[in-house]
UniProtKB/TrEMBL annotation, chain A:
Protein name (Swiss-Prot/TrEMBL): NAD(P)H-dependent oxidoreductase subunit E
Keyword Iron-sulfur part of the UniProt annotation: yes
Family: Belongs to the complex I 24 kDa subunit family.
A Pfam family it matches: 2Fe-2S_thioredx
NCBIfam families: nuoE_fam (TIGR01958)
From TrEMBL, chain B:
The name this protein goes by in its record: NADH-quinone oxidoreductase subunit F
SUPFAM superfamilies the record matches: Nqo1 FMN-binding domain-like, Nqo1 middle domain-like, Nqo1C-terminal domain-like
Organism whose genome encodes this protein: Fodinibius salsisoli
Role played: NDH-1 shuttles electrons from NADH, via FMN and iron-sulfur (Fe-S) centers, to quinones in the respiratory chain.
EC number: 7.1.1.-
Cofactor: [4Fe-4S] cluster; FMN
């Protein structure tokens, strides 16, 4: 592979300035700038960490420490779609592991791996704050897919293969009848 | 607890379509508490009076510890030339908890108004709202509300012509339960790993960048405008003795109608499970309940009779209110599997600074896995119980306690089930 040049565009640098302005120190923007970088490169491998350190004029060791502490940063290249299946308490009770194992069977990989075509990675993750809509998964640090069944998972995979991301699903409180109606209309 | 919960109308998340839009919020009395305070700040609503009213209401912190919010505010030192901060905790990572996201999505301005009132009371001019990174969709929804509040002059310079300046910055994490611990969150806000800090010094003395800081949960702050509008006495009339106000109950697990429900504090547990959440799936029997997130001790069905969701009643029953994230388990639930998974969570999330926590959570998980796989011995159970006492109260933050309690109580309360999974110990055979 050709040597890749790691740099931010002017537009990204403007965004980074805006993020820095939220805090009294530049260091405080470390998490946010790592996010900007991951958005761009799909991971925060050492070269990307280096870029973040240079951009914020902070030590690479600091950036490395942060990048490796938080689970949502991808320390290496991942599949185009990362499926984070929650297997924590409530999801475990409601079949989270069945969903995980179904995905593993369908995609022919285990949690922690990526399909050969680079399309999908699967991870087994901790509670995502959607316990009442279990079992569930999150797609590439983004949208939540709730109340999963094996059929729903198959459909999701098919949609993703066709480049269709699921849409954000609003989970209105059952007590909020009027609001529920307004959302469904 | 009043028996009239069936006619209760939600206050934190009322049934009003599009309430997340600022115009709709205003039409329904929104930002009146803030206006009222700013108009009467030389009279009824001096900064101290606001704090005292909130203290009298006794809003128990909804982040898990149940501390009186107004009392916490009163710990802030007198203003000097240092910056002062309010850090709002929207990390929401305690398994079983999924309520604060409802506030961001359905009534964000109630929270913003509460945070503004808190900032006024404590003479704070910078508010940070820290949201877990996985909630990126809710971050974006919330940021729209913040933008509206800036446009309408509720945030920024010279708020509503009062001469008071308050800014609100939203930011988010990147996956780490420990950033919900208040000082872990401060470290993360400073752009570092979320290593909890040794206390003292407490955040009110030395918080963000060494300056006075108060930390409150999102739902806690959403209660504040209700108190200002209706008074502490009114607030005290809702809920249970010593635990008042509305509560967002998150109900998950083996129930027919899981979800978030708003009812007064002190709700009868069995009413919540059987009526509100529609009972146990498949007509099965209830086996156990974790009442307030993973860290709170599990209760057997027979321990739940007459228990209500408030700190006194739950303490008497042998557990805690926590985040009111109720995890319901049916008769077929495998408690050994469940406890192993809980221990896996805490081991995964331990930040590793303290030896009893780093090593202890690892051992808990390892031994529980052995028992789960049928390779454990009865003496391993006693070893686990012994381990929990060695982890408790010896660490920088409460994660080690939170990891130890479920192990102790689940084993003690379901001892037969754990023993049945163990091989007979050498002594028993001999
Ligand atoms: C390990 C650990 C995780 C925590 N996670 C959260 C959390 O996700 N959200 C939260 O509001 N409080 C959490 N807390 C409690 C906070 O430390 C703090 O008590 C709370 O945010 C204070 O707000 P309150 O008084 O309004 O509840 C956690 C505590 C511990 C020990
Ligand atoms: S108790 Fe555990 S999570 Fe808390 S600071 Fe110590 S090692 Fe970290
Ligand atoms: S346990 Fe899966 S979302 Fe909470």
């Amino acid at each position: 592979m050709a040597e890749q040049d790691y740099s931010f565009t002017q537009e990204e640098l403007d965004e980074i300035e805006r993020l820095k302005a939220k805090f009294p120190t530049d260091k405080a923007a470390t998490l946010r700038v790592l996010w900007v970088a991951q958005e761009k490169y799909g991971h925060v491998e050492p070269e990307v960490q280096q870029l973040v350190a240079e951009t914020l004029d902070i030590s690479p060791a600091h950036v490395h420490g942060v990048a490796t502490f938080y689970t949502q940063y991808y320390k290496e290249e991942m599949g185009k779609f990362v499926l984070d299946v929650c297997t924590c308490l409530s999801c475990q009770l409601c079949g989270g592991y069945e969903i995980l194992h179904h995905l593993e069977d369908e995609l022919g990989i285990k949690a922690g791996e990526t399909t050969e075509d680079g399309m999908f990675s699967i991870q087994s993750v901790e509670c995502l704050g959607a316990c009442g809509y279990a079992p569930m998964l999150q797609v590439t640090n983004g949208v939540y897919a709730n109340n999963l069944t094996k059929e729903k998972v198959d459909k999701l995979i098919e949609n993703l293969r066709n480049g269709n991301m699921p849409e954000f699903e609003s989970m209105v409180m059952r007590q909020n009848e009027k609001r529920k109606k307004a959302v469904s209309e | 607890m009043a028996e009239d919960w069936r006619s209760y109308e939600p206050l934190l998340i009322p049934d009003i379509p599009n309430l997340h839009e600022i115009d709709v919020y205003e039409e329904n009395g929104g930002y009146q508490a803030l206006r009222n305070i700013l108009d009467n700040r030389e009279g009824k609503w001096t900064r101290n009076n606001v704090t005292n009213e909130v203290k009298a209401a006794n809003i128990r912190g909804r982040g898990g510890a149940g501390f009186n919010a107004g009392l916490k505010w009163s710990f802030m030192p007198d203003p000097d030339d240092r910056p002062r901060y309010l850090a709002c905790n929207g990390d929401e990572s305690e398994p079983g908890t999924f309520k604060d996201r409802n506030i961001f999505e359905f009534n964000p301005h109630l929270f913003i108004e509460g945070a503004l009132i808190a900032a006024y009371a404590m003479t704070i001019d910078t508010i940070y709202v820290y949201i877990r990174g996985e909630y990126i969709d809710w971050v974006n929804i919330f940021e729209e509300a913040v933008e509206e509040a800036y446009e309408k002059g509720y945030l920024g310079n010279d708020i509503l012509g009062s001469g008071i300046d308050i800014d609100l910055h939203t930011t988010y994490g990147a996956g780490a339960y420990i950033c919900g611990e208040e000082t872990g969150m401060l470290e993360s806000l400073e752009g570092k790993r979320g290593y909890p800090r040794i206390k003292p010094p407490f955040p009110a003395q030395k918080g963000l960048w060494g300056n006075p800081t108060t930390i409150n949960n999102i739902e806690t702050l959403a209660n504040v405008p209700l108190v200002i509008n209706n008074g502490a006495e009114w607030y005290q009339s809702i809920g249970a003795e010593g635990h008042n106000g509305p509560v967002l109950y998150g109900i998950s697990g083996h129930v027919n109608k899981p979800g978030v429900y708003e009812y007064p504090a002190g709700m009868p547990v069995m009413d919540l499970i059987n009526e509100v959440a529609g009972g146990i799936r498949g007509g099965k029997d209830l086996k156990a309940l974790i009442p307030g997130g993973t860290s709170t001790p599990v209760l057997r069905a027979d321990q739940l009779e007459g228990v209500s969701m408030d700190s006194n009643s739950l303490r008497e029953a042998g557990s805690m209110m926590g985040t009111a994230g109720m995890v319901v388990m049916d008769e077929d639930t495998d408690m050994v599997d469940l406890l192993w998974r809980i221990s896996h969570f805490f081991h995964h999330e331990s930040c590793g600074q303290c030896t009893p926590c780093r090593e202890g959570t690892g051992w808990l998980e390892k031994v529980l896995l052995k028992i789960k796989n049928g390779d454990g011995e009865i003496k391993d159970l006693d070893m686990l119980l012994d381990l929990t006492t060695q982890m408790e109260g010896r660490t920088i933050c409460a994660l080690a306690d939170a990891a130890a309690w479920p192990v102790r109580h689940t084993i003690n309360r379901f001892r037969d089930e754990f023993e049945a999974r163990c091989k007979k110990s050498v002594h028993a055979v001999a």
